[in-house]
Amino acid sequence: MLRLAVLVSGGGTNLQALIDASEQGGIKNAQFAVVISNKKDAYALERAARHGIKSLCISPKDFKNREAFHQALVDALDAERIDLVVLAGYLVILPKILIQKYRDRIINIHPSLIPSFCGAGYYGLKVHESVLARGVKVTGATVHFVDEGTDTGPILLQKAVDVKPDDTPEILQRRVMEEAEWKLLPQAVDLIANGRVTITDGKVSISEI
Ligand code: GRF
C-alpha cells in the first residue's frame, strides 16, 4: 500500500476528488496517511476529518524561522513513512531539502497545460485570468513531478479543456477543475500506486496493464 500525504492550503476540492476516487475503487493500492495544511482554517482539514483521515496543520507562523518550519514538514512526512506527496493546492514553495529527499515522489496539479501559463506567479485565478487575457481557445490541467523549479518537473498527465467566449476566470476555473483536475489527480495517484510510472531523462512513461 502506497502511503500518501496530501498537502493543502485551501478548499480542498482536489483532496475531495482523491477521497471519492479512493472510496469508489478508482485508486487502488494507496492509503491516506496524513493531510497537511499550512493554514489552520483550510476547509480541506474539515474534509479530511469527515473521512477519518489524520490531519495536521504545520504553519510557518508557529516556527521561529523558515528553516524550522521546513524541517517540521520533512519530519512529519518521515514520521508517517510517506511514499508519495501530493500537492493539492498547496501554496507553499517546497524547500530543497524536501524535494531532494522525496525526489520523484512528489506530484503537483497545475491548472493549465504546462508549459503555458505556469511558473512564478501563476497560481489560483491568476492562471485563468491570463488564459482569458491571451485569448487562447484551449487550456487544461497538468499533473507533474516536482523538481527544484516552479512547474518544471516531468509531466505525468495532461488534459485539455475548451475556453468559451463568455468565460470569466471563475467559470473557467470551475470547468478546468471539473473536466480535468478532479479526474487527472486520482488517475495519477492510481498509476503511481500500481507501479505503472517510470521517469527516464526527465520524461515520464506509463506502462500498459
Ligand atoms: C487548484 O486549481 C489546483 O490546480 C491549484 O490550486 C487549486 C486548489 O484547489 N494547484 P482546491 O483546494 O483543491 O479546491
Mean pLDDT: 97
The fraction of residues in strands falls at 15-25%
Strand order of the largest sheet: 3-2-1-4-5-6-7
What's the β-strand tally? 9
Q: What is the count of DSSP helices, taking H or I runs of 4+ residues?
A: 6
The biggest beta sheet is recorded as: 7 strands, mixed
Written as H for each helix and E for each strand, in order along the chain, the element string is EHEHEHEHEHEEHEE
The amount of helix comes to 25-40%
- The unreliable regions are none
Distance between the termini: 18 Å
Computed Rg: 16 Å
Shape: globular
Small-molecule components bound: 5-O-phosphono-beta-D-ribofuranosylamine
Structural class computed from helices and strand pairing: alpha/beta
How would you summarize the topology of this molecule?
Blueprint: E1 2-8, H1 13-23, E2 30-37, H2 43-50, E3 55-57, H3 66-79, E4 84-87, H4 96-101, E5 106-110, H5 125-134, E6 138-145, E7 155-162, H6 169-193, E8 197-200, E9 203-206
Parallel strand pairs: 1-2, 1-4, 2-3, 4-5
Antiparallel strand pairs: 5-6, 6-7, 8-9
Helix pairs in contact: 1-6, 5-6
The structure holds 5-O-phosphono-beta-D-ribofuranosylamine.
5-O-phosphono-beta-D-ribofuranosylamine is lined by residues 8, 10-14, 88-89, 109-111, 177, 181.
